[in-house]
Every structure is written in structure tokens, then in C-alpha cells.
Amino acid sequence: MRLVIPFNHDWLFYPQPVGLETPPSAFSWVTLPHTNKLFPHHNFDDADYQFISTYRKVFTLPQPRRGRRVFLDFEGAMLAATVTINDHTFPEHKGGFTPFSYDITDYLHDDDENLLTVHLDSRERADIPPFGHTVDYMVFGGIYREVQLRYVDLARIEGVFVYAHEVLTDAPKLQIDVDVWNQRDQEFAGVVKATIYDGDQVIKTLLQSTTLAAGERVNVSLSEICQGATWESLQLWTLDQPHLYRIVIEFGDDQISTHFGFREAQFRNDGFYLNGKPLKLFGLNRHQNYPYIGAAAPARLQRKDAEILKYELGCNIVRTSHYPQSRHFLDRCDEIGLLVFEEIPGWQHIGDSDWQNLSLRDVKAMIERDRNHPSIIIWGVRINESFDEPDFYTKTNALARSLDPTRPTGGVRFFLGGDFLEDVYTFNDFSNGILEPDHTPHLVTEFNGHMFPTKSYDNEERLVEHALRHARIQSLQMSTGGVAGAIGWCAFDYNTHKEFGAGDRICYHGVMDIFRLPKHAAYFYASQQAPSQRVILHAATTWKLGDLKEGVIEPIYVFSNCDRIEVFIGGVQQLAQYTRDVQQFPNLPYAPFKLMNLGVLLAHPYGELRIVGYLNDQAVAECCITQDAFPQRLTLQADDAVIQADGIDMTRIVFKITDDYGTPLPYTHTVVTFEVEGEADLIGENPFALVGGQAAVYLKARFTPGPVRVRAKTPYHALAEVLIVLQA
User: Fold this and answer.
1) Would you name the residues annotated as active-site residues?
2) Which domain holds residue 682?
3) pLDDT for res 605
């Protein structure tokens, strides 16, 4: 029977390549995911994580083998891993973004301790994608994703691909391809059994007998026409109701399970269609990196990013720029109905033939790992923003289509024209408009970004213009024929190399900052979702005369999905009609309101700004901004009230200096100091030199359940406190 055991605790770490002569006492105890170095959120050099480190783990087998093979599965280690089990060293694995495994059976001590050593090279090596030239993101170092110990039978399942087609007909078809392997030294006759569940209810069981010769590996196909009484309640996977089914595959004594969905996703010449209905793709790019911990984020933080993109930003698609991302992130996209464009590692540079072979391996690993995710609608099989390389890209496209004939390929470029070997023309359009498509289907995969980097504490005009630039392109794409959608650059600010970042090595391209806290542009995205999902009312102003040229506070843009708004200044209602700016943004679902003729002038007294939003003539939202903007309070808020006491789990804690209405004050600069009471560690700068009025740290659980109190203080404000409970 298959057994998969998390293998993430009781690791030892040493930040140099060392051998057995270095005693365990010299190492640090760590859990996985792990970053090889903690950082401040900015102002550090990428050279600081580029070193070879040593991970070590001593273990006894948690269960007897009983004839099974034992594999060691790494979900991701940056960038090249040399793994030794006892006295055997495996060839170096090159690449940090896709999973890899070792059969360690023949080198194990069944009844004694085993020594596992990983020498991890985190240098940016030119022989491994994405490197060979400059890259606009930091990759960080460490065994930054999970590791598992996997027991499997000699006659076993190696992979499963589940997909539906003709789902909009009266007889949808379900195809199940099962890769089985007989590693025994004699023939094996068995039955592949597929049991399909809707929740806890068994919908259907399918059987297929097969006989494998010794050492033989074959693909067994099972299919089902989904009609009749057992399928009467079949539900499609949609953005609003992302219904997931579960399938359990059995072969001999082996068993695995996965989830899937019934949905049809098509790029046609006139756009994108989900389940036969046209859908304009409206989204943002996402890097997997976080402040302090680099890419070593546990499941909770990965899932939270998907929720931010879907619920806070109102996106219907995310591009995993520029590499495959965590399974936890993709699982959450499946669960909440967020479409995904997933692509291979790379950035502009194409290496030699060995480099290209590694890239082809990445195509295979990405698709085989992720092709059961209904959220994924397209594979990116071209190195982001690279020039044409027809032989190489003919191979990447052919490989992708052979592994998954159900999804189209795309190849993200930064120029029009060139070889079009993919199924969808995917283009980074930095023209500040939408260039006429050379080919259809056509998808804009980046815009804005480096054209207008914006810090959360920049002057008001820049922050507003940043938001309006996103609004203009999204409005334009809505009416441009043949354009399936636009994916803005990008969701979150991120650490980068000196060639691309600001003076503190951050790319300020995000609609949110590096802590996942919103700029004005974030509220534009959020305001485009239906108010039944979330009501948005945000005035893009600090309401301060000195923030704008000539001391004139107009126009003011209000990002909202309300039907109408009312405006009050100093308690007095303004009688002008504040309508949506459909002249500038004619195609948006909810064009921003534009406030003019407010009569607020330099050196004339004026009061607070109050805006009320209405739906169906009912007041549903209110936005208040004070005139004085004195910092009144320090606030703390944790994303989660309860986390797991497993030494791995983390939650974000946001702290802000706000006015009386809870609005963060971007020009408040002070030092915030934290204290932690309980069995957890604060991850982040402490003390924190706050610039911009808001930021975040993380709380990482230890192993003892119980309450944890985090307190924050400044020289000027009352103590703030938040309680998080660690549970077993």
C-alpha cells in the first residue's frame, strides 16, 4: 500500500558546504519550507543568498518497507541539489522550480539510522534556467518547498491524467489515463480501478484489466460517457461555483487520488470562452516571493495569495510569472475559481543545448504535475520575452501537446511578429495602449509595470496615474476585437536585482506593495467585481492640498462598484452630480467616478471628505478622509486567528499608523517595536522603521499549542496587541 509521509521536520542546516567532520551541534535546527537566509524586506544584495549550503537529516524508516520501494520527493529546492543517502550520492539535480525524486530504496538501512545530506547550490548558475543573463526577479535559496517520503509497491501507479471533453453536450466524456509500471521481475496481472466521487458520494466506478510483463510500463485508458441517472446532477467548474470532483485510482495494492473539474476553456479568434460563454480575462501577474522569507512560504501563505487575487483584487486570471508555482497556490485557485496561465522558468535568455534540454524537462515536469488542475487554461512554453528560436520552440510546443492535448500553448514575447508556433499569441504590450493583434487568439500578458513604477508612499498624482493607467488598458482591452484579455504587471511589488529595482532593490510595479497591501491601483481592480461579491468604495486621494500641483484637489477619482455616490465636505452635501467617467473608460464594468468642481482652494478652510455609496437606493458603503491627517493610533491585525503548532505554519500581521477612520497615513515615518509572548517567532524587522504608514511582519508557529500575543508600540501611540492561537 502506498504511503506518503511529510518529511519536513528535524532538518539540520549549515550555511556552507561541509562534510561529516562538522558535528550536528554546529548546525541549526530547521523545518521546511526553509530559506537559506532571512532578509530585511529591502536593501539587500542578491549575492547574500548565493552560496552552497548543507542540509542534513538523520532518520529511521517510519514504517517497515515490506517489499515496497521508497522514494524521496522534493517539491522544489533552489537551485541545484546534490543528494546523498548514507554512502550513495545521486547525480546533481539542476533546477529549482519543478519537483524531483530519488529512489533511495537500495541505499537505506532498514533497521538502523539513515543519514540524508543535501548540498544545495543557490548560486545563479548560467547552466540552469532561468540564468545565463540578467533576470528581473530574485530566486532566493534553500529547500523552499516541501519534501516527502513515499513508499510504493513494485506494481504501481506512476501518474494520472483526468480530463473531460464535450462537456456542454448531453453526453460529456470523461477520459482517465493511468500510467502503470510493473517493476517486478515477473509478469503482473491487475485491474485499474477508478472511483469517482462528488463529495463523499460515489458517482461511478470504472474498471480496466491489464497484464504487464516484467519491467513493463504502459498507459491504461478508461473512459466514461457521463449520462444517465448517476450523472444527472453533473456540475460544471465555473468561476462562481468551482465544483470539484475527486477520483481515486487503484492498481494492485497501490492507490492515489486527485481532483478534477468538468469545464470547457477555449481561446477562439474572437476571444476566450469558458463553458461556451465569452469571458474577458482580467488579471495580474504573480511572483512567488515574500518579504523576509524569499520563496519559502508555507501552504497558508500560498493559499492566501490566491485569495487576495480573487477576492481582494477581483481578478479572474493570474499568470505564474515566470515559472511553475506552489501546488498549494494552484489547489486554492481550483477551489475558489481563479484561472491560471502557468509557464516554464525563464527570462529573455536562451542557453545552449544542455540548457534547452533542462527547459524541455521543465515543460514535462510542469505539465505532468499540474494538468489535472481545472484552473489552468494555458501552458506557457516559451521563455518569457525571448527572441525566436524555432527549433527549440517547435520542441516545447510538441512536447506540451503530447502531454496534454486539451490545453493550448502560449509563448510570451515582447515584440509583434516573429514565429507563431503556439496556439495563442501571448504578448507583453508596453505601448500604453493595445497594439493591433498580428495573430488571434491574442492575450496581453503584461502591461504597465516598468513603464510607471509606483511606491505606496509616492505623491498622490503618481499613485492616481498608476491606477488610471491600469484602468485605461483594461477598458481598452474590453473592446479590442480578437484580444482575449489583459494580465497586468503585476500584483505585488517584489525584490529584484540592481539592474531593475529602485535604489532599495525592489521593483515597485505592483498594484499592491511587497506586503500585499493595496495601492490605489488595487482598488481599481477590486472595483470591477460585482457588488454581490464585494462592495468597493475608495477615494483615490489623501485629501490634502499640499499633495497636488497648485493646491487644487481635483479631479478626485473614486473607485467603486456602487450604483451612485453622494459627497459631503465638512458635513455639507455637494449638490453636483458625480457620474462615472465613461468618456475615458467606456468599456469597464464599473468606470471610476470623477469628482469635479469641489470648490476646495488653497488657504481656504475645508472639512473632512465623506462619500456614501448606494446600491438600489440603499446606503451600503462609506469612505471618510480627515483633513488634518494626524496619526491617531497604531493598529495590528492578523490574517488568521488560529494557526497550526507544527513549527511550519505562518500568518501575516499587518500594522498601520492611521487617522481616526482607520486610514493608513502614507507620510507617517516612525519606528515600531514588537514583542511576542508565547511559542512563536516573529519573522521580520524588529524594530521596524516604518515608511508609508503600513507594513507587515509574519508570525511563525513553534510546536507547543496555546495562545500567542503580539504587541507593537511606538514612541507616540498606545500599545497595540493581537492574539493568535496555536492549535495541535
Assistant:
1) 385, 446
2) 633-727
3) 67
